[in-house]
From TrEMBL:
<dbReference type="InterPro" id="IPR036259">
    <property type="entry name" value="MFS_trans_sf"/>
</dbReference>
<feature type="transmembrane region" description="Helical">
    <location>
        <begin position="431"/>
        <end position="449"/>
    </location>
</feature>
<dbReference type="InterPro" id="IPR020846">
    <property type="entry name" value="MFS_dom"/>
</dbReference>
<dbReference type="Pfam" id="PF00083">
    <property type="entry name" value="Sugar_tr"/>
</dbReference>
<feature type="transmembrane region" description="Helical">
    <location>
        <begin position="186"/>
        <end position="205"/>
    </location>
</feature>
<protein>
    <recommendedName>
        <fullName>Major facilitator superfamily (MFS) profile domain-containing protein</fullName>
    </recommendedName>
</protein>
<feature type="transmembrane region" description="Helical">
    <location>
        <begin position="331"/>
        <end position="351"/>
    </location>
</feature>
<dbReference type="InterPro" id="IPR005828">
    <property type="entry name" value="MFS_sugar_transport-like"/>
</dbReference>
<keyword id="KW-0812">Transmembrane</keyword>
<feature type="transmembrane region" description="Helical">
    <location>
        <begin position="160"/>
        <end position="180"/>
    </location>
</feature>
<keyword id="KW-0472">Membrane</keyword>
<keyword id="KW-0813">Transport</keyword>
<feature type="transmembrane region" description="Helical">
    <location>
        <begin position="73"/>
        <end position="94"/>
    </location>
</feature>
<feature type="transmembrane region" description="Helical">
    <location>
        <begin position="124"/>
        <end position="148"/>
    </location>
</feature>
<feature type="transmembrane region" description="Helical">
    <location>
        <begin position="357"/>
        <end position="377"/>
    </location>
</feature>
<feature type="transmembrane region" description="Helical">
    <location>
        <begin position="398"/>
        <end position="419"/>
    </location>
</feature>
<keyword id="KW-1133">Transmembrane helix</keyword>
Length: 466
């Protein structure tokens, strides 16, 4: 075969050119994603902070900050209260101020909250610090998800969205390790660094091109696309497609009457359902029992109890990062729901039989690890990605706000009712109850959730219009 003729084959040259363009087009979007997820890393750190900080504060020598059992519960759940208000105000902010500016503004409550916790002299300062850092959590979870969805090219959107959730899990992992090494006040000092980096580095990142086009700022949108996609890729075509979609939506202003029409309300309700099931699938039931499960397995240090499970979640997140754009969104969601249900059934069997057969500790470890693995590959990252993808641009601020509110309300209710449920149903009953909810999540995905793999945001919107 004439190798020279193969090298000059125009089809090969075109393919190589496209691959080169695709590679160059991802660099800007990847960099902007990595900087923006420092906001959600801060969110994960706040979640992980609760366990080691509460453990230290329960035995604090200063009686004015020592926490009782009930005060410990409120110290942990007050984060969700602040996050609820954060995501309510984040919706109008991402529409009015822009995605980038909202991420920057969201870092400010983190710094204020951590300052209050570092200087805490009484319970009021502790609760206030948690609520205000929660405010930052609510803002960042919404704004970062929308920002990444809008800056990512279609072939990388799932992968870059997975980086967002990987950052959350990494933040938790960092908090658990730091909590083992440092006392709670130094743990608070460490928590103030990631949001400080957001304030510093996010200033140099581009705004979402779609937000610029929505505000009739085409020249700024083209500059942003050029930064994100690189000079080797045609950006006019992408800009034109987005403009056409926006033009169709500008015929009338978004009203509540229009908001409840099928093309808008259906994706919003799917987002609400996904983020609600994310919390109702039993993740907190597993984590709340981690200390008991792993102490029976020989890990006696309470601060290390959640570390193995968070490590498993990190591995699952990395696998999702590599595979989500290849296998799609639906397969991880419905297979993950069934895997989590089976794991929770196994945990329920363990709690049912442990008093009689103490040698089945292996079942609790296997079930807990497999549950966290399935969760981290499916219901941990994917609901946030799908929610940000399917809600149409003109309703994205309000729609993602409503979905995120549902997530935080559900998280608060699950956290506050777990002890009551465990008392009424026993530990095994709670596990089987959440296993049943996982099955309902499976049905929800099969019936309602569309596949969005490698589709442009404009193509996804057309699914609901048609």
């Amino acid at each position: 075969m004439d190798t020279e003729s193969v090298g000059e084959n125009p089809l090969c040259d075109e393919r190589n050119m496209l691959l080169s363009r695709a590679k160059s087009s991802s660099k800007g979007a990847v960099l902007a994603t990595c900087v923006s997820v420092l906001g959600t890393l801060s969110f994960g750190y706040c979640i992980g902070y609760s366990s080691p900080a509460s453990y230290d504060l329960k035995s604090a020598s200063n009686l004015s900050i020592r926490l009782s059992r009930s005060q410990e519960s409120w110290f942990s759940s007050s984060l969700a209260v602040g996050a609820l208000f954060g995501c309510i105000i984040a919706g109008p902010m991402v529409d009015g101020l822009g995605r980038k500016v909202t991420i920057i503004v969201g870092a400010i409550p983190f710094e204020i909250g951590w300052f209050l916790l570092i200087c805490a002299k009484n319970h009021l300062m502790l609760y206030s610090g948690r609520i205000i850092t929660g405010l930052g959590c609510g803002i960042e979870t919404l704004a970062v998800a929308v920002y990444i969805t809008e800056i990512a090219p279609p072939h990388l959107r799932g992968r870059l969205g997975s980086i967002n959730i990987l950052a959350v899990t990494s933040g938790q992992f960092l908090a658990y390790i730091a909590g083992f090494l440092f006392y709670w006040d130094w743990l608070s000092i460490i928590g103030s660094f990631p949001p400080a980096l957001v304030l510093l580095l996010m200033l140099w990142m581009p705004e979402s091109p779609r937000w610029f086009l929505d505000k009739n700022r085409k020249s700024d949108a083209l500059k942003s696309l050029l930064w994100l996609r690189g000079s080797h890729l045609e950006i006019e075509e992408e800009c034109r497609e987005t403009e056409e979609t926006l033009e169709q939506q500008r015929d009338q202003r978004m009203s509540w009457k229009e908001f409840i029409t099928a093309p808008v309300v259906k994706p919003v309700l799917i987002g609400v359902g996904l983020l609600s099931f994310q919390q109702l699938d039993g993740i907190n039931a597993v984590l709340f029992n981690a200390a008991d499960i792993f102490s029976k397995a020989g890990i006696k240090e309470p601060k290390l109890a959640s570390l193995p499970l968070t490590g498993v979640q990190l591995i699952g997140n990395m696998i999702t990062l590599l595979t989500l754009d290849k296998i799609g969104r639906r397969i991880p969601l419905y297979s993950g729901a069934l895997g989590m249900a089976a794991s929770l059934i196994g945990l329920g069997v363990y709690f049912e039989l442990y008093q009689t057969f103490s040698s089945i500790t292996w079942l609790s470890i296997l079930s807990s690890v497999s549950y966290c693995f399935f969760y981290s590959m499916s219901w941990g990252p994917v609901p946030w990605i799908v929610m940000a993808e399917i809600i149409p641009l003109r309703a994205r601020g309000l729609g993602t706000g409503i979905s995120t509110v549902a997530c935080w309300v559900t998280l608060f209710l699950v956290t506050e009712t777990y002890s009551t449920l465990a008392g009424a149903l026993s530990n095994q009953g709670v596990m089987w109850f959440y296993a049943g909810l996982c099955f309902f999540a499976y049905i929800f995905v099969i019936i309602f959730v569309p596949e969005t793999k490698k589709r442009s945001l404009e193509e996804i919107e057309s699914i609901f219009r048609n």
